[in-house]
Amino acid sequence: MIIHLKNNILLEKAKEIANSLKAKIITENNKIILITPSSLKQITNELKQNIDDYFVMENDIQLASRNYKKETRKVKINNLEIGGNSNNTLMITGPCSIESRDQIKQCANLLKELNLTTLRAGCYKPRTSPYSFQGLGLDGLKMLSDIKKEYGFNIISEVKDTSHVKDVIKHTDIIQIGAKAMYDHSVLRETGKQKKPVLLKRGFGSTLQEFVQAAEFILSEGNPNVILCERGIRTFETKTRFTLDLCGVAFLKEYTNLPIILDTSHAMGYSYGVPDLTRACVAMGIDGLLIESHPDPKEAKSDASQQLNFDEFKEMHKSLIPICNSVNKNLI
């Protein structure tokens, strides 16, 4: 249940009520909000005198549910906006990993040429093998900060664990929580305690319920700026890296109020399939895309097979514009 307390209820009284209900407490638009387990279906007459409004929920998808907020949440990324009434589809691109200053500079020039706004690159890499490239860490974040200062791009990079959450928050505009960290409650809670946008990727073995409940951890800490990212789930199929769950995206659009971004690079795992998958995603009217691009993919230190070279990316980008127009979206 989600409970909106009356405006005259002081914080100490609100905490007392929250403790009695075993509820989380957040403030949004100067309103004190309590979130109880969804098993609570009724409230006492005594409690009603303190309540402005309340919402009985079917399950623990609560703050993210359209039964609570019907419209898609608006998420501001500096001077950009997705969700809400924006009709924007945000194109996020860049390499899987930042590898050098020269490499990321070339990527920045691609974004500048196409008038794009948001650069991605991993600095802390949660690799499957301990012997693979693990990222440049803080040095990589500092390079991304330099690029931001020079070009004015929004920057997104991934949090691997709590040891560097504060560094990623400091140097980026969007904090990415990857598929392998989706269940890390300490990361979810820490990113929920600040207000920067958080892009949460679905774990490749996670149900939609588990995925959105991970988002609830961030929302229930008080950060409303959460973006969901579908990036493919593990199925019986072995010819692609993962299976992009567009059926799941249809569910998320219908039942959740969070903006949705799709990562076709990780889903397909092979660059030849990324453009077609991306075109299909845009036709669904989603809020954003995350596509990996690299100056020379065959030399990439991570995920070489799935990254588009610049010519491939530009050709795909050109093909997306009329599809965006057909679903009343602006590619930014």
List the SSEs and their pairings:
Elements: E1 2-5, H1 11-21, E2 24-28, E3 31-35, H2 45-48, E4 51-55, E5 75-77, E6 80-82, E7 88-94, H3 101-114, E8 118-120, H4 138-151, E9 154-159, H5 165-171, E10 174-177, H6 185-192, E11 198-201, H7 208-219, E12 226-230, H8 246-255, E13 260-262, H9 264-268, H10 274-283, E14 288-292, H11 310-326, E15 330-331
Parallel strand pairs: 7-8, 7-14, 7-15, 8-9, 9-10, 10-11, 11-12, 12-13, 13-14
Antiparallel strand pairs: 1-3, 1-4, 2-3, 5-6
Question: Could you explain how this protein is built, in words?
Answer:
It is a single chain. By secondary structure, this protein is of the alpha/beta class. The protein folds into 2 domains: 2-55; 75-331, Aldolase class I (TIM Barrel). It is built from 11 helices and 15 strands. It has helices at 11-21, 45-48, 101-114, 138-151, 165-171, 185-192, 208-219, 246-255, 264-268, 274-283, 310-326; strands at residues 2-5, 24-28, 31-35, 51-55, 75-77, 80-82, 88-94, 118-120, 154-159, 174-177, 198-201, 226-230, 260-262, 288-292, 330-331. Strands 7-8-9-10-11-12-13-14 form an 8-stranded parallel beta barrel, surrounded by 7 helices. Strands 2-3-1-4 form a 4-stranded antiparallel β-sheet, with helices on one face. Strands 5-6 form a two-stranded antiparallel sheet. Helix 7 (208-219) links the parallel strand 11 and strand 12 (226-230). Helix 3 (101-114) packs parallel to helix 4 (138-151), helix 6 crosses helix 7 and helix 10 (274-283) packs parallel to helix 11 (310-326). The two termini are 37 Å apart. The model has no long low-confidence stretch (mean pLDDT 96).
